[in-house]
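Thread: "does anyone have the structure for this chain?"

Original post by V.I.:
We have the sequence but no experimental structure in hand. Need at least a predicted one for the grant figures.
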Amino acid sequence: MSAVVLEVDPALVGRDLGVWHMVPWWVTMPVAIAVGVALVWYFIRLGASDVPRGRRWLRRISVVFAVAALVPLVRGLTFVHPHEDRVGFAVAWSMVLLTLVVCLILALVDVIVTMRGGVREYRELRRETLGGRRGERGDG
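Reply from O.Q.:
Generated one for you, tokens below.
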């Protein structure tokens, strides 16, 4: 069994760095590939579904950002040690955070668009069921 040689960043020499465990590549790579395949399958499946065009567009962009987050995620978990390459480690995790924040914002926009569509459908159903003119407030 070979010992891992760690070349510490010169700015960190003399500091108590503590133990830092990296995830082995044989764990991160298959998981990232499986998640990537699932996201690509979902992206393709969105084209054939009955999802409205606006929501499909939002979901596809969010899938693209999620796939883009996989590369820096694997890099930060497996290949960039924070004691050796602080900048590379920070860049990898910053990219992961940025892409996932974009995914979260797109998911919130999708929720708002979906809720607006649901309210619109509810009002139309209420108008058809209870009568009344279009735009009338109803039983409120």
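V.I.: this helps a lot. The chain has a mean pLDDT of 85.
O.Q.: and Helices lie at 25-48, 53-79, 86-130.
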